[in-house]
Amino acid sequence: MSDAHADQDWRAWFAENGARLRLIARQWTRSEADADDVVQEAFVRFWKHQRHLPGNPNALVVTSIRRAALDLLRRSDRRSVREQAVGADMETVSWFEPEADPRLQSLADSLKLLPPEQREVVVLKVWGDLTFDQIGEQFSISPNTAASRWRYAMEALRKHITVRTHD
Amino acid sequence: MTDPDHDLEQALAALRPRPPGPAVLARLARDLDAPVSAHGPIIAWSAGLAALAAVFVAAFLFLGFRGEVEAPSYQLVRADQSPADVQFYRPVRLDDGSFVRPVRVRWDDTTRWEDPRSNTRLINYRPNDQFALLPLETN
User: Fold this and answer.
1) Residues A154 and A77 in one domain
2) Contact in structure between A35 and A25 (CB atoms under 8 Å)
């Protein structure tokens, strides 16, 4: 099998993309630590099995992240109540670096307030760099539905940050 | 025609997600440094099946065919994994008030060995079907 990315420095690729991949993993994990584990496992899976494939590796890595997250959830279905409580505490951790611009900070805080199905679309479009077609494939929904969720999310975010900046 | 969401999308893109911790980078470096041969992943994936095939061949020879038939010499020629078919179902509410999204993932693994001398093939087809509940965050 020929390697379509033989010259690719995958460590440099991960260093450049690791943060946004972690944010994507965070959408399907219970805690920051789980997101770290999922990103690592997913990237190693991709590197071992799919890095030779032609085309942009981005969509493959995102799919690998989703599958690794599902695997982790399946393994931890019997997680104890105590561990779930710890996971809930972790929700106070911001997904983003602190921003000096209050509007950006408000936007970062508002993202968590979106309904999960809208937030997933926003994260995959903005940080996953996926098209509505690709997002639709990820969730088995039509591209129009993905686009519709995006529009609702934009509308909701606009309202959130307007209210917050007037608080 | 201008996209009214463009400015908001630009602002979102300006946010900086927190990077993975240093422990992740260290573990990743260790994994990427581990020696892997060109066919390592395929061989590792099918090692169990290859062992099973070897046992089958050995048993076949031991049960009366020794000396009569030359042992097949299978070589791994192909290992395929189909794209995953992922189905996300509507979120459901659990007894504890939390929401989860049922997810079903299906894919097939196919591995093929061939013995060019006897022109025989050994094909293993394995369908996979997994179901999970994906917790949804609510604020």
Assistant:
1) no
2) yes
ipTM value greater than 0.90: no
| Overall domain count for chain A | 2
Q: Tell me the pTM.
A: 0.62
Q: Cβ separation of A95 and B17 shorter than 8 Å?
A: yes
- B133, A43: Cβ pair inside 8 Å? no
Cα A114 to chain center, whole Å? 14
Q: How far apart are CA B35 and CA A151, in angstroms?
A: 47
Q: Are residues A55 and A115 in the same domain?
A: no
Residues found in chain A: 167
Residue range A98-131, pLDDT digits in tens: 888 888 889 998 998 899 999 999 999 999 999 9
CATH number of the domain enclosing A40: 1.10.1740
- Do A112 and A156 belong to one domain? yes
The minimal CB distance from B18 to the residues A49, A96, A126 is found for: A96
| β-bridge mates for residue A145, sequence order | none
